[in-house]
């Protein structure tokens, strides 16, 4: 049992303040990032051992190559897919206590929607149903014509690029690449949810990538309270009403447990 008291006075106070805001909310929305999946063994992008810290951020020529020659792009991606350390970490990852707690919040009627920047499918595997994957899903492909999505394992890769079974359009992996526009359907839902949110939880994100980092700011401009769950400060920390400076698994579990007690 992760009692807030056991977490220390400051954390105990932050958890209680977060729970008070959640209890008053009728449509809480969460924005999650790589920090939430760090406890599942998936590297983050920035910070001490982040992927981009170690290897540098990807350039946008991947997106340009796809646009110029989707067939060659697919050949290149399929060659590298097996050897990817990051991809392997995702393939063997399991949902952690943070994902489970967020699914519990949804089942308790305390979390209406999750906007995730993560591509690892762990929210859904933990039981979250109302979710928008603004940066896509590594296990899916998306049609560049009709926007339809399928699981990667269901499409034939005998012919590259693979074509959409519905409209014959060219398929791409669903993960949004640097330089690639965010898919319209995902972007519309993110703005819709941000416009109706009456509470925003920002969980495990450095809040430096847009448009994702803008959603909590848009809500804040309407007077919506912000809860940040992150061991470290971010550009949103100054506007957060409550900052829970702890790992997401511990913090979210303590929040759920306190809600269940009240
Ligand atoms: N619990 C909560 N937060 C954590 C934890 C943890 N256990 N461990 C690390 N963090 C925090 C870090 O302090 C950091 O603020 O999670 C954040 C991770 O930041 P990033 O690595 O930048 O990940 P993210 O914010 O999701 O990146 C956004 O950048 O490159 C793009 O598409 C990529 O979706 C990604 C986007």
Task: Provide structural commentary.
The protein is α/β, with parallel strands linked by helices. The chain has a domain at 4-60 and 94-136 and 181-261: Rossmann fold. Helices cover 40% and strands 13% of the residues. Helix 1 crosses helix 11, helix 7 (97-107) packs parallel to helix 11 (248-261) and helix 9 packs parallel to helix 10 (214-221). The site of adenosine-5-diphosphoribose has 22 residues, from helix 2. Adenosine-5-diphosphoribose is lined by residues 33-35, 38-39, 44-47, 50, 117, 135, 204-206, 209, 230-232, 234, 247-248.
Name a few traits of the molecule.
single chain, 262 residues, alpha/beta, Rossmann fold, three-stranded antiparallel sheet, binds adenosine-5-diphosphoribose
């Amino acid at each position: 049992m992760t009692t807030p008291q056991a977490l220390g006075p400051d954390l105990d106070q932050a958890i209680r303040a977060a729970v008070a805001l959640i209890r008053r909310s009728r449509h809480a929305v969460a924005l999650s990032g790589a920090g939430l999946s760090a406890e599942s063994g998936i590297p983050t992008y920035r910070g001490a051992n982040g992927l981009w810290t170690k290897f540098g951020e990807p350039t946008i020529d991947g997106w340009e190559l796809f646009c110029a020659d989707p067939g060659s792009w697919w050949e290149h991606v399929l060659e590298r897919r097996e050897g990817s350390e990051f991809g392997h970490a995702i393939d063997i990852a399991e949902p952690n206590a943070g994902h489970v707690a967020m699914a519990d919040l949804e089942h308790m009627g305390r979390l209406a929607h999750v906007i995730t920047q993560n591509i690892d499918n762990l929210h859904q595997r933990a039981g979250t149903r109302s979710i928008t994957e603004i940066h896509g899903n590594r296990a899916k492909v998306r049609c560049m014509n009709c926007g339809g999505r399928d699981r990667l394992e269901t499409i034939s890769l005998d012919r590259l690029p693979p074509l959409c079974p519905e409209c014959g359009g060219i398929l791409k992996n669903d993960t949004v690449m640097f330089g690639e526009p965010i898919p319209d359907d995902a972007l519309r839902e993110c703005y819709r949810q941000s416009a109706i949110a009456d509470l925003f939880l920002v969980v495990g994100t450095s809040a430096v990538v847009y448009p994702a980092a803008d959603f909590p700011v848009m809500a804040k401009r309407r007077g919506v309270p912000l809860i940040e769950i992150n061991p470290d400060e971010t550009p949103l920390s100054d506007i957060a009403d409550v900052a829970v400076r702890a790992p997401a698994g511990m913090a979210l579990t303590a929040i759920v447990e306190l809600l269940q007690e009240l």
